[in-house]
Write a structure and sequence with these properties.
heterodimer, A: mainly alpha, MetI-like fold, 2 domains, B: 275 residues, six-stranded mixed β-sheet, 25% strand
Chain lengths: 368, 275
């Protein structure tokens, strides 16, 4: 990948990165932060500072004290810079701690119920207070994925179309469309559920995965639409002009030039929408409800989903059912992380391809 | 201003009946506005077939506005307006029955900044116009080779047609954009300062390309580089502004503009005394 010349023309010369932070420095910094975090914890025990707030304040003060007392050879400007840097670093750590605490809590409470069967079996032949090696949440995972898939199939084209309307067509209704999208983003999720309940569930006479997917679509659309608009705005006008100058009509230009240019961004828009709705509980309680077995047919009555599974397990209230609920939360959390990571990865791949290409081009030029 | 136009009627006839079977691109009394700002006033010019015409003049004198009038790119600016006639082989391109997309198919454009489509490979970039305009062509390989050769890029990229357009250098990208414009076989190619972002080597290469293109099509090129105008163009048109709208000072054979122009301001400009 790197264009290291085969013949060593410059013996003894090594590529160096004198500006890079070495691994040992980074390790030292991390361990110092850890030690200070622990000291701050001790402070909350022996002084009136208490709880998370007290710990955060103590942590911040210790860090600042350390940097102030550190290097006396620093000038005034460098010192100010160092103090600000340590303040922001410790604030970042402070913001990170609650997030970590949520994850660790879910992990600690939920890990007990994990076994391979958890992902493949349902609760038809087991009760919530059974041992952990019986039953599982496979039906809830499948239900969630089906409903989210329905919502995605509906909202991705709609969201991209509305993004195209807002950025490419810029028709007379632009203001109205943007206004509606923004107000939809403010709709409480239970209202979206009620809307589908009265328009789909009642006329059909039964709860269904389809209804659940539709309710999720209502909540997902504004996210996808907004993100798609923002992404399409990034396409330089040069490219549109180039398309028009080649004799292309607006739709051809939008579909063949503009959309492929931001393909990865549009995928990200879809995945952000998925992450937005996959944990929604209220609308599903009104549209798809819950059940104990696998349901593959979106029109075949009530469907389980991870949020409603978690909800019902907690409501059951025994030790084993609660642990199952925590495991469900863990799966949900991991799913959302997975989707976000996927979005980042897909977004980065396109950029990476372009970068690799230009690097190759530079190397070629160097050789010639 | 009207005085200037009257002076140039010998080389730039204002009436079509002076040469009724004129082939090429012609403007008659063209004006352009952006909102209430009158950007360009009363330009009457002829671009005969298979010639290169250089548009020269200081910044802000309406050259780019003028060139964008010639393939109906002007109307993409929301507040834009125009007056006058612009004729391609005798028919008005601003006729309400004309389809702007098919006009742009006949009158192609190369922009100041290279703008290859980043999501397409080199090959796909060349063929983009054909796909975008739904043209029926079956010899795609020939078109790619021919257009890239005419743009002077074939030898450099023939082994990596599958690489993305953005991986080329600036000069190569600009030649790719030229190749892309050629693939739809335009009758006229408009170039808006195509070399302003390029190094001397790439500039020279593109100038050679322009001379070769002139054997088949009409080229109109905006340039700030006097040497370039004298090297590539058969005719030159000098634009100027006195703070108001830009106007045409004079248009003539390039050699005359650079050696013995009819207007003293043209002489001052080409000798680098202002602008």
């Amino acid at each position: 990948m790197n264009s290291v010349p085969a013949v060593d023309q410059y013996p003894g010369v090594e590529p160096l990165r004198p500006w890079a932070v070495t691994r040992s420095t980074r390790l030292k910094n991390l361990s110092r932060l850890a030690v200070f975090a622990f000291v701050a914890f001790l402070v909350t025990i022996i002084t009136p500072l208490a709880k998370f707030d007290g710990w955060a304040v103590a942590f911040l003060l210790i860090n600042v004290a350390w940097v102030v007392g550190q290097n006396s050879r620093l000038g005034a400007k460098e010192r100010r810079d160092a103090v600000l840097r340590v303040v922001f670093t410790s604030l970042a750590v402070v913001a990170f701690v609650p997030w970590l605490s949520i994850f660790v809590t879910v992990l600690l409470k939920g890990y007990r119920a994990i076994y391979p069967g958890y992902f493949f079996s349902d609760m038809r032949t087991s009760t919530p207070e059974d041992e952990f090696n019986i039953g599982g949440a496979g039906h809830a995972i499948v239900g969630s994925l089906i409903m989210v898939a329905i919502a995605t199939v509906i909202t991705l084209p709609l969201g991209i179309l509305s993004g195209i309307y807002l950025t490419e067509v810029r028709g007379r209704m632009t203001f109205l469309v943007r206004f509606i999208v923004q107000s939809m983003a403010g709709v409480p999720s239970v209202v979206a559920g009620l809307f589908i309940f009265t328009t789909v569930v009642q006329p059909m006479g039964k709860y269904s995965g389809m209804a659940g997917g539709l309710a999720l679509a209502v909540l997902m659309l504004p996210t996808v639409s907004r993100t798609a608009e923002e992404v399409l705005k990034l396409v330089p006008d040069d490219l549109r002009s180039a398309g028009y100058a080649l004799g292309a009509r607006q739709w051809r230009t939008a579909i063949m030039v503009v959309l492929p240019t931001v393909k990865s961004g549009l995928i990200t828009a879809g995945i952000l929408g998925i992450a937005r709705v996959i944990g929604e509980t209220a609308p599903l309680l009104l549209t798809s409800l819950n059940t104990n077995g696998f349901v593959w047919n979106p029109a075949g009555g009530t469907v389980a989903s991870l949020p409603t599974y978690i909800f019902s397990m907690f409501m059951y209230g025994t030790e084993y059912s609660a642990a199952r609920a925590w495991t469900g939360s863990l799966v949900l959390l991991v799913l959302v992380f997975g989707f976000f990571t996927l979005a980042r990865r897909l977004g980065a791949t396109a950029a990476q391809t372009a970068k690799t290409d230009s690097r190759k081009a530079r190397n070629l030029k160097k050789k010639s | 201003m009207t005085q200037q136009n009257a002076d140039t009627t010998t080389t730039v006839p204002q009436r079509a009946d002076a040469a009724p079977d004129f082939r090429g691109l012609e403007t008659r009394g063209a004006h352009a506005w952006f909102g209430t700002h009158h950007a360009l006033a009363d330009v009457s010019l002829r671009f005969p077939e298979r010639t290169v015409t250089g548009l020269i003049g200081p910044s802000g004198c309406g050259k780019s506005t003028f060139i964008r009038l010639l393939n109906r790119m002007h109307e993409f600016i929301p507040s834009a307006a125009m007056a006058g006639e612009i004729l391609l082989n005798g028919s008005d391109i601003y006729d309400p029955l004309e389809d702007p997309a098919s006009i742009r198919l006949k009158v192609g454009m190369v922009f100041q900044k290279p703008n290859p489509f980043p999501a397409m490979t080199i090959r796909e970039n060349v063929l983009a116009g054909i796909k975008l305009a739904h043209l029926k062509r079956d010899n795609h390989d020939d078109i790619v080779e021919q257009c890239l050769s005419r743009a002077g890029l074939w030898k450099e990229v023939k082994d990596r047609l599958g690489a993305y357009g953005g991986s080329l250098s600036g000069g190569q990208q600009q030649r790719l954009c030229i190749a892309r414009s050629l693939a739809v076989e335009p009758q006229v190619l408009l170039m808006d300062e195509p070399c302003s972002a390029l190094d001397p080597g790439s500039t020279l290469r593109i100038e050679e390309t322009i001379r070769e293109l002139a054997e088949k099509i009409t080229v109109v090129i905006v340039t700030h580089n006097m040497q370039q105008a004298s090297r590539v163009s058969d005719f030159c048109a000098f634009f100027l502004t006195d703070g108001g709208p830009g106007y045409l000072v004079e248009a003539d054979a390039t050699r005359k503009i650079f050696t013995n122009p009819g207007d003293s301001r043209t002489a001052d400009y080409v000798q680098g005394k202002f602008g």
